[in-house]
Amino acid sequence: MNCRSEVLEVTVEARQVEEAMLALLHTILLHRSTGKFHYKKEGTYSIGTVGTLDFDCDFIDFTFVRVSSEELDRVIRKAVSEFKDALGNSGSDGMGQISLEFYQKKKSRWPFSDECIPWEVWSIKVNVVNLANEQERQICREKVGEKLGEKVINVVEVINRHEYLPKMPTQSEVDNVFDTSLKDVQPYLYKITFQITDSLGTSVSTTMRRLIKDTLAL
Amino acid sequence: MAHFDTEYQRLEASYSDSPPGEENLLMHVPEGAKSQWHHIENLDLFFQRVYNLHQKNGFTCMLLGEIFELVQLLFVVGFTVFLANCVDYDILFANKFVNHTDSSKVTLPDAFLPVDVCSARIRDNSFVIFVLIISGVFWLHRLVKFIYNVCCYWEIRSFYINALKMTMSELPYATWQEVQARIVEIQKEHQICIHKKELTELDIYHRILRFKNYMVAMVNKSLLPVRFRPPVLGECVFYTRGLKYNFELIFFWGPGSLFENEWSLKQEYKRGGNRLELADRLASRILWIGIANLLLCPVILVWQILYAFFSYTEVIKREPGSLGARCWSLYGRCYLRHFNELDHELMSRLSKGYKAASKYMNCFLSPLLTVVAKNVAFFAGSLLAVLIALTIYDEDVLAVEHVLSSITLLGVCITVCRSFIPDKHMVFCPEQLLRVILAHIHYMPDHWQGNAHRYETRDQFSQLFQYKAVFILEELISPVVTPIILIFCLRRKSLEIIDFFRNFTVEVVGVGDTCSFAQMDIRQHGHPAWMSEGKTEASIYQQAEDGKTELSLMHFAITNPQWHPPQETTHFISQLKERVHREATGASDTHPLSLSESEPRSLIANLLGGPSTLNSVHFGRDSSLTNHAAAGLSDGASALRSLSPISSSLHLKGSLSAAHRAGHTSAMSKAMASSGTDARTVSSGSSAWEGQLTSLVLSEYASTEMSIHALYMHELHKQQSRGEHSRHTWHRQESDESSDSVPDEVRSEPNPHSRNFPRSHTFPTTVPSPSAIPTSASATSSTMLGQGGASSQSSTQQRYSGPATDSFGAGGKVVRSARVPMGGWAEDGQAAPRRHEPLPEESSEDEMPPHVHKVNAVCVCVMGYVDVACLHCK
């Protein structure tokens, strides 16, 4: 609970799913990434630069800015295409949700594993529609572009608010806050998960975990 | 371009050691995670643990306690099995002779069976094996729990030490309010909750009590099936720990429960669309859980016994009152609990009411039983006397078989019988006792007032305050009854439950989904008959019963003076407080008899205003403090708040000792010192805890203030609802003969015993002269309420007899003079009840009816406090 959650909803055509998701995820990550930290002695550091590039969508009238990091792009594309496939295979009414969760790690003592504590969760709800003819597709193409533009503004507004962010870490703790595996950019630790159809409720494993935790609680 | 380049490089060259780049220009200093306490994942659990550790007096105490409990469990099981299987009782009872050659004495080891025989007996007995297995699992469960807890609480311990800067040794002497204030303080620095910059007290309470608030609300709205009408027993309440556990399992955390995690209700339950489908699902889940309960019944039974054994010791440790024959039932705790009231707050206030409550219950000894008991005691007594006399004559009588055991049995029998025989010199006044109880428990169905002497009231009260034996019996039959209740009663309510959770869940930023009642918003859940007339917009469905919203709000505001409620709420609180104050002053202003006026006013003034006035009352009683006291009174409550801890402790210590000396002298000053008495009992119980005294005494004042407000609100409510149809939570199904039927304040009760003494002598007709009252009153007070006082107290009584009569005379006079218009008003009020609703803020004080009305309320308050005092002084 101790995390912010933002929900974005989009309605798109099946072939636009990938690009729409990429647009939103990349936008968020653009604002949640920094340049690489270079630690110096005396406990200071300097921040490297972050390159950006414009990305034009094929199926939507839309261009967005993303971090020019091929590695990051690869990771996100992989997640999004998995999501798209799952959405296509589900055969249900085409509802899905992809969430981007920013977390920080907290080292804990021996019997417990490291905790991953989310501090911000972006949930993007996707509603896939089928369109009958080309004309509708054209209209949809423009409308989705506009909508995505609004969402991007929305994201920027949220990020501009002066709210909790993990404190800048010292060198030893940098892995607890930032994802340092990429060589040209350093986003906050994030996790992308997705869920098809409305809500499956809590999974069995989480219930079991809760059950055990609750019986153990004083 | 090339030109620029070269120039640039030349400039660069002046910085000798660093490579070109922007790194030099922007240097950052990492803040680092200086503390590990920012952004805690599960704040609910975290705060609960912080609270638990505080309640358990620190880490070491908790650790030791738990270890000893584990050992105890092993010992109890082992010893029981040993006694049952490994002792040859024939040898012990000398039915069988031991063939010792050397001596004829039987030694204890002779009675033990050899190890192999013993283990064979255990192995053959499948029941013992079963019990052993269950207790083994139980013990392992506790062991794992213990280890887990040690790890978790170690972290909380370091939170206390590093973040809150409190050592474990000072923890037992810190009140929860202090701990809480520090948590609120460090939020600014560490940001343990990321949603807000600042935490409020209410946020912390909400998180700790999230589910408890729901349960309280459900009991308040009579949603849970806990009242039954079995054919023979009449109406009864069945609410056990097993049932409670199952309710919580179903609603809050079990597999497929309504809550997704600790802090959020599942999305689908928030939407009204498919409520029927959800209700079906809930019903089938309840069915399955019920069946599982049924199947596991024997296991649960054994578990229950073990658990009861251990939690029972726990209860005794926590609750001193529980050593008596009665205890507050689980249902009572739910019914009496305020929204947002922590365990220790509830416990302390129930414990305070314990004495009065058990006295009240003792008023109702059945005369039939008394007759029987008297005679049984007579016969048993004569037998016992003969046996004892014979024993004294020749102690060989004891050696005769069964003489010792029959003496013991007869003794027990007489003791039991005596508990059914009322003390001849004891006179009870149930109406007053009930008011004293009300001052502590704060809730009571409307129709109890004025009907305190009736058996029905007593029966209903016994549902809140039951025999401990009944409590244990209920716990033991609970494994069998619980599945039945789940399957046949709760399942039917599934739709209502779904609706309840949908309608009464609000999402609060930074807290998550909480019960909307717990917001204590007068506008949403106020009850028009409880002073929120005009402010509330709630429908009947949304109103909390019994003035729970209003009383909870007052309670929370009083216990957490730092809390800043929302605008309207602040208004409500200040209005109410102001009214209580104004009436305190108003009471004396209407009767400008300079002699008598100082007493009742200073009574309330010092109950509200705390130490400074308390002092002035004791030392400057006879001086003309009329103006001075009035000035002090107006900022009475604010004085209570603004007291800095140090100065207040000085003040309070002084005033406490003053109360000590003067406290027993008179009924009135007893009333004043009532809070002091409490503090004294606490502090005398633990004289080492001096440091705690400050906050303890402060919280004492808070509880007294709350008692006054509770009494006042009940009084207003009664006046307001008189004449109009009232709703009762207690018997909502049956609109019974309620208090409306009898104008109880002026009614002379049929039973002369239940006439309380202030009332009897406050009627002008019964009073020959003011000077005659005090002696008779103090005489009656000591005889009527019995237990005249400890011997040490009686000596002070002697010494201070002069002022005692004085003050009582004055007090009695005021009460009397206030009573006269009240009686007149009572008739008036019956004729036109709606005219005397709680006045809007701007109503002028010059109008007659409000005045009188106020006086009335104050009188009742005062009387309530006289009662409290009487009870305390015993």
UniProtKB/TrEMBL annotation, chain A:
> Where in the cell?
Preautophagosomal structure
Q: Which Gene Ontology biological process is one annotated for this entry?
A: autophagosome assembly
Query: Major location, coarse class?
Result: other
Might you report a single GO cellular component term?
phagophore assembly site
Q: Does the keyword Nucleotide-binding apply?
A: no
Q: Do the record's keywords include Nucleus?
A: no
* Top-level lineage group: Eukaryota
> What Pfam families has UniProt attached to this entry?
ATG101
The record's comment on protein family reads: Belongs to the ATG101 family.
Protein name as catalogued:
Autophagy-related protein 101
What organism is this sequence from?
Dicentrarchus labrax (European seabass)
From TrEMBL, chain B:
Region called Disordered, residue ranges: 661-686, 719-849
Q: Please tell me whether the keyword Transport is annotated for this protein.
A: yes
Query: How the protein sits in the membrane?
Result: Multi-pass membrane protein
Which InterPro entries does the annotation name? Autophagy-rel_prot_9
Q: Where in the cell is it found?
A: Cytoplasmic vesicle, Autophagosome membrane; Endoplasmic reticulum membrane; Golgi apparatus, trans-Golgi network membrane; Late endosome membrane
Q: Which domain of life is it from?
A: Eukaryota
- Transmembrane ranges, per UniProt, are 59-84, 127-148, 286-310, 368-390, 402-421
Q: Where is the composition biased (Low complexity)?
A: 764-783
Bias (Basic and acidic residues) occurs at 719-735
This protein's GO CC annotations? autophagosome membrane; endoplasmic reticulum membrane; Golgi apparatus; late endosome membrane; mitochondrial membrane; phagophore assembly site membrane; recycling endosome membrane
Catalyses: a 1,2-diacyl-sn-glycero-3-phospho-L-serine(in) = a 1,2-diacyl-sn-glycero-3-phospho-L-serine(out); a 1,2-diacyl-sn-glycero-3-phosphoethanolamine(in) = a 1,2-diacyl-sn-glycero-3-phosphoethanolamine(out); a 1,2-diacyl-sn-glycero-3-phosphocholine(in) = a 1,2-diacyl-sn-glycero-3-phosphocholine(out)
Q: Does the keyword Repressor apply?
A: no
Q: Where is the composition biased (Polar residues)?
A: 666-686, 753-763
Q: Which UniProt keywords apply?
A: Acetylation, Autophagy, Cytoplasmic vesicle, Endoplasmic reticulum, Endosome, Glycoprotein, Golgi apparatus, Lipid transport, Membrane, Mitochondrion, Phosphoprotein, Transmembrane, Transmembrane helix, Transport, Ubl conjugation
| Primary location group | membrane
Biological process GO annotation list? autophagy of mitochondrion; lipid transport; piecemeal microautophagy of the nucleus; protein localization to phagophore assembly site; reticulophagy
The UniProt function text for this chain reads: Phospholipid scramblase involved in autophagy. Cycles between the preautophagosomal structure/phagophore assembly site (PAS) and the cytoplasmic vesicle pool and supplies membrane for the growing autophagosome. Lipid scramblase activity plays a key role in preautophagosomal structure/phagophore assembly by distributing the phospholipids that arrive through ATG2 from the cytoplasmic to the luminal leaflet of the bilayer, thereby driving autophagosomal membrane expansion. Phospholipid scramblase involved in autophagy by mediating autophagosomal membrane expansion. Cycles between the preautophagosomal structure/phagophore assembly site (PAS) and the cytoplasmic vesicle pool and supplies membrane for the growing autophagosome. Lipid scramblase activity plays a key role in preautophagosomal structure/phagophore assembly by distributing the phospholipids that arrive through ATG2 (ATG2A or ATG2B) from the cytoplasmic to the luminal leaflet of the bilayer, thereby driving autophagosomal membrane expansion.
Q: Which family does it belong to?
A: Belongs to the ATG9 family.
Please identify the protein, giving its name as recorded. Answer: Autophagy-related protein 9
